[in-house]
Amino acid sequence: MTLATGNPDTKWSRSSVVAVVFLFILFIFTLSTTLFYIFCIRKRSKAQIAEMEQFIGPVKKRVIVTKGLVDPENDGWSDMPSTYQIHVEPIATSGTRRPRLSSDLTFLSDYEIPPDPAWEVERSRLHFVEMLGEGAFGEVWKAILRMPVVRTTTNRGDTREEEVAVKKLKASAHEKELIDLVSEMETFKIIGHHENLLRLIGCCTGTGPLYVIVELCKHGNLR
């Protein structure tokens, strides 16, 4: 019986060494490529997040006035606010970006009030003269309203000027004050003409500042 003596040959062949080195280099290359890709993705994501934090698209809100049915047996005076409901809903918009600093605030210019063709007056027809009074969030101005004259055989359809009072909000007003002024405007519409109350002449709505135009009470109080 013959016993094996000595250690077996543990030396690797040349081809085995080349294969191991090649696999190691391939592993290092793959790892480096993966890490570089992850680095680029994170860098781009951070840049996008920074841009989103710095700028935000304009946020618009629409003031919706929903009118209910009027009870013909009701005199129309006891519960006028119940004849309409006012709520605000956001609307999707696209346009010029603005700094994020202002996006945390709500501006009156961010609100849109659907025009009422029966009462709408172009803002360009108003010329503000002087302030008659003001409160915490609102102002009352004396203004000149240029109204078109119906074309007849005796005139050429020129304009006439009328002194009016305009109720408007200050820039510091909030959504609640805007809704209150819209509610007041709708109440004027329901009342119509009454000899003991101020008469609503018109209003300026849409995307600009809200103006409620009433007749000028020269010797009275508009508040």
UniProtKB/TrEMBL annotation:
Its main location: membrane. GO terms for cellular component: plasma membrane; receptor complex. Residues 126-223 form the Protein kinase domain. The chain crosses the membrane at residues 17-39. It comes from the Eukaryota. It is found in: Membrane. Pfam families: PK_Tyr_Ser-Thr. Keywords: ATP-binding, Membrane, Nucleotide-binding, Receptor, Signal, Transmembrane, Transmembrane helix. GO terms for biological process: cell surface receptor protein tyrosine kinase signaling pathway. This is Protein kinase domain-containing protein.
